UniProtKB/TrEMBL annotation:
Species name: Paracoccus zhejiangensis
The protein, known as: Pyruvate dehydrogenase complex repressor
GO molecular function, one term: DNA binding
Highest taxon in the source lineage: Bacteria
Occurrences of domain HTH gntR-type (ranges): 9-77
Organism classification: Bacteria, Pseudomonadati, Pseudomonadota, Alphaproteobacteria, Rhodobacterales
């Protein structure tokens, strides 16, 4: 997309629309700081008063907010976990499986589209993501590997060039990073699980690079199915441990000695 706004409409509205497009397509991401006003006006080839009016329009819509340094940034769109319904769902163990069921469908679709639509820039981004995962895996750093994991999946959605899919993934990624539906560190704390996840991530990456949509879809679906199974196993093991501890302690309400 050109950095120059459309001159065929009123300047402020055109500037606002241009910034909206950048947000919608994912070029401007939640939390991204905007350039200083003078530099931004030069980039967009508009006057500073016009830019201020355009940004004010986006502030009124909640798309742009002030940051702590006196500048402006993209609002944390589609990443909030404060909604009462989200919190309610997060408190129910059964929603984890529903969440992963949704992820399986979306991940397979996104990977298949990415294999068909990804360009050279997208493929380079995916390769950098897999390199980060491999480096974190080599260093046995589960936290970095888990973060790189999310970035890889986001890159797959970006490479799908489906804006609705991408924005859905951004919301899911925001909740995933905050551990709303499950604690991903529990996955990466297990070395044998980390090895399998690395192999699966490579398979997704390789299929997209090879432009093989069927293989990419299959690899993504297998990955989520495996994650789903392991999380269920972890949850079951934790439940058994809780029961054993309660038995040992008499449910915390007996006078057993």
């Amino acid at each position: 997309m050109s950095s120059e706004v459309n001159k065929g409409t009123p300047a402020a509205a055109s500037t606002a629309r241009h910034l909206e497009d950048l947000i919608l397509e994912g070029s401007l991401r939640p939390g991204d700081p905007l350039l200083p006003e003078r530099e931004m006006a030069l980039r967009l080839k508009v006057s500073r008063p016009t830019l201020r009016q355009g940004i004010k329009m986006l502030e009124d819509k909640g798309l742009i907010v002030a940051d702590q340094n006196g500048g402006r940034q993209v609002a944390m769109l589609a990443t909030s976990v404060t909604d009462p319904l989200i919190e309610l769902m997060a408190s129910r163990a059964e929603t984890v499986d529903d969440y992963l069921e949704l992820r399986a469908a979306l991940e397979g679709l996104a990977a298949g589209l990415a294999a068909t639509r990804a360009n050279d820039v997208d493929r380079e981004t995916l390769s950098r993501c897999i390199e980060r995962i491999e480096a974190a895996h080599h260093d046995a750093d589960p936290n970095d590997e888990a973060e790189a994991d999310i970035d890889l999946h986001t890159a797959v959605y970006e490479a799908s060039h489906n804006i609705v899919l991408l924005q859905i993934m951004r919301a899911l990624a925001g909740m995933l990073r905050r551990g709303v539906f499950h604690n991903r560190i529990k996955l990466y704390a297990r070395s044998e699980v980390r090895d399998v996840l690395l192999t699966q991530h490579r398979a997704i990456h390789d299929a997209i690079i090879a432009r093989d949509p069927e293989a990419a879809t299959r690899a993504a679906e297998n990955h989520i199915a495996y994650t789903r199974r392991v999380l269920n196993e972890i949850a079951a093991a934790e439940t058994r441990l809780e029961i054993s501890l309660r038995r040992l302690q008499g449910g915390n309400i007996s006078q057993r000695v």
